[in-house]
Amino acid sequence: MMNLPKYENKPFKPPRKLTLTGNAKTSTVKRSISRTQITASPLTKRTKTCATLTETPSALPNQSDNNKLFTIMYRKPSMKKHKTWDKDGYAELKQSGILIFYNESGARIGRVSKIEPLLETIHKAGSWEVQLDYELTDTKEITKIRTLLKNNFESASITPPSTASSTASNVLPSTSKAQIPITQLFTVQTVKKFKTVLPKPNEHTSLSTTVNQDTNSTRRNYLPVFVQTKIKNPLVMNKSIDADVDVIVDPLISKFLRKHQREGVKFIYDCINGLSQVEASTAVVDPTQQSMILEKNSDINGCLLADEMGLGKTLMTIAVIWTLYKQTPLVKNIPCSQSGVPLSGLCKKFLIICPVTLIGNWKREFKKWLNLNRIGILTLNSNNTPEMDRNAVKNFLKVQRTYQVLIMGYEKVLSVSAELTNQKNLIDMLVCDEGHRLKSGTSKVLQVLKNLDVKRKILLSGTPIQNDLNEFYTIIDFINPGILGSFPYFKKRYMVPITRARDTSNRYNEEILELGEERSREMIEITKQFTLRRTNSILTEYLPPRTDIILFCKPTETQLQAFDNAIRGAKLDFNTASFNSTLGLITLLKKICNSPSLIKNDSYFTSKIDHSQYQRANFNVLNSGKLMVLMSLLKHLRTNCPEEKIVIVSNYTQTLDIIENLLLSEQMIFCRLDGSTLPKQRDSIVMSFNRNPSTFAFLLSAKSGGVGLNLVGASRLVLFDNDWNPSIDLQAMSRIHRDGQKRPCYIYRLITTGCIDEKILQRQLMKHNLSQKFLDSSIENTNVNDDLFDKQDLRDLFSINHHTKSNTHDLICTCDGLGDEIQYDTEAPDSVPPNGKKCTTWNQRVNNYQRRSKKWTSLHKKKRQL
Ligand SMILES: Nc1ncnc2c1ncn2[C@@H]1O[C@H](COP(=O)(O)OP(=O)(O)OP(=O)(O)O)[C@@H](O)[C@H]1O
């Protein structure tokens, strides 16, 4: 039920509730008093009369100035699924806890008792739904609004409501502006400086507003939306010399931002607004504003936010979107309030493209940080027909007030390409999440997005370089077209020299190495202007520690035999075979690594390999080193750490099937998410796992569920097999070590030794190094030879080392391979290790781990130089 004010909607009653104190009767008495007083002395007496009324605006002399004022948005209640705000106005919060709402002209439209949370609630007042936008803090503006409310109140008090409009002009002094809307008021006052013009439709300006046309000679003092002196730790954006006002991130969101996120928001803002970071050293720092005046750089309008997973790329992007939606540094052509506060922002329409599985996550994050009522979010539902999608996109672009953000999956881009690209200048900002999807220069989606008429681009990716510089060029050229020159130029100047220097066969050729280094540095100099990369070591400050453990698992005799038979049976000719022609065999070997039982249904095995010699016993599920290690780990955890949960990730649903059966046989409660899980079930599965204490394990398919899931209910994760692409594994591993995690986390990577599992791991390490080199500015020595291992030739890929404890270790270390005992923390009693050994502190362990990683790299370097 709506909480209606007493007199609202009753026939023949005045719209405002004006009661006299002392229970005196209402309108008749009031009207007669007013009339008498007007004849005597309009202004002074009127004040006196108003003082006897309840709920007068606080501008009145005997009212407290402590009442807070807010801007509001309001609308008529509607049953529409996607609602929009129709009008703007003001609210006053009385000390008594009553909220009074006024329209833009200062006329009262309703009242409610204060409901918390004040800003997030949609208040039902009379026939309106109202939401508070932000609190007014600027004294000048507050005074003006109070005056407006006061004038309006007075005119309402002295004028019989039924004849208000006709009598007011006769009774009030001719200078009264009580009934003039704010925008007109502004025009009247500043008519010499500004003229009212009809906004151009493509500037997204609302038709009822007044637009400022600054003439050079008469520049007005504008005010920012937020007053930084009133904000604790304000986040003020950098600006160019021609900026009219400061842009300050809404404290509603900036108060949550961590230090690296504040820096990130500023960085993105600078890039997409073409403010040059390179000039930062010479830039003017305004000490009162904690921001810099930067040079304009027309080459840059895009940003690559390459922070590792979990650093809050989504939150930072939302902060930038909200800031630019509400604010602008350049006020020309923008409607302003009476006191010069811009009423709309620089950007009106935002397009976010992401993997379809992340659409829900984006929506949740918008809701978490802004509340969905503040900004209209439209998502393209995966069940939509192409026709429905096309109409949705058309409407999104056409209708100004309803939606500001359109979120859709990459696969929808092609079906709505015409709608997106046909019209110019309609999208103000493009965000591509998991943007490494655009790495292929021939991708059709990339071509469509390149054809979009949008200047500001943000590409989010924790793993932007996955394979080579070719892909890096594609991504960079998409964000900031032309910045690295044409592709032939890039190839000649950067790609060839850098790649040659990385080739191990050139490792003693000083000339090649030097040129490669020089060109790397040059390329980094260009790209660092708009690339921000931080590692998730930053999170150690906010999250419990994370320990990555690689468990090298000895293959069983059955596995070794299966490897040999498969390779022999495939009868490969290494002189003619290519990587692609051996994919079937590679998959087969990977399956054997997980469990020999998987091969019986493998198409390559059944069609190409002579399997007459295979006995049924060979297909025993548990004839797998990794499965034996996994089961022992699970049992240990279950017994010794009953509160801890575990996520088990595999690239193969068949492997998940095997593990599922093993869990069932051990009566371990689990849930599962893979490609066959319906999108609408995903959230409830995740929520039930995180909340339900009895669910012990979560079986996750890496490809279909690795991205965007929040599985902080678990503190341990097993990566049962590797992908060639390290980013897939990294994504999966980040599911538990993220915000909301309360326990120290352990990530176990299971690798079958001496076979393809290890080769994949080694290749991953090489690729990861490549991305470190170009993105991690913090890396100490960019001179490190990236090729940790020789190029993988096919022969190497299919060679099986029967006797090694770890081929990876053999390659990089000369020690006896016993290693350090894994250290567990006595400070974390919950966390007993699988082997129950004694422990040192978390910090010591983390340091040890980092030291060991560095030692790894330098040892290998030495080895290669020998
Ligand atoms: N300052 C913060 N305070 C509290 N929670 C935060 C903060 N920043 C981010 N988070 C939360 O951390 C989680 C990860 O953030 P987000 O998804 O933005 O990271 P990301 O860098 O985009 O990671 P991924 O690449 O894995 O998607 C989210 O649940 C987010 O709400």
UniProtKB/TrEMBL annotation:
It is an enzyme of class 3 (hydrolase). Coiled coil: none annotated. Belongs to the SNF2/RAD54 helicase family. Residues 1-26 are annotated as: Disordered. Residues 633-790 form the Helicase C-terminal domain. It is found in: Nucleus. Involved in the recombinational repair of double-strand breaks (DSB) in DNA during mitosis and meiosis. Has DNA dependent ATPase activity. Promotes D-loop (displacement loop) formation with RAD51 recombinase. Modifies the topology of double-stranded DNA during the D-loop reaction to facilitate the invasion of the homologous duplex molecule by the initiating single-stranded DNA substrate. Required for adaptation from G2/M checkpoint arrest induced by a double strand break, by participating in monitoring the extent of single-stranded DNA produced by resection of DNA ends. One of its GO terms (biological process) is double-strand break repair via homologous recombination. Its EC number is 3.6.4.12. Interacts with RAD51 and DMC1. It catalyses: ATP + H2O = ADP + phosphate + H(+). Keywords: ATP-binding, DNA damage, DNA recombination, DNA repair, DNA-binding, Helicase, Hydrolase, Isopeptide bond, Meiosis, Nucleotide-binding, Nucleus, Ubl conjugation. One of its GO terms (molecular function) is ATP binding. This is DNA repair and recombination protein RDH54. One of its GO terms (cellular component) is nucleus. InterPro entries: Helicase_ATP-bd, Helicase_C-like, P-loop_NTPase, SNF2-like_sf, SNF2/RAD54-like_C, SNF2_N, SNF2_RAD54_helicase_repair. It holds the Pfam family SNF2-rel_dom. Residues 294-482 form the Helicase ATP-binding domain.
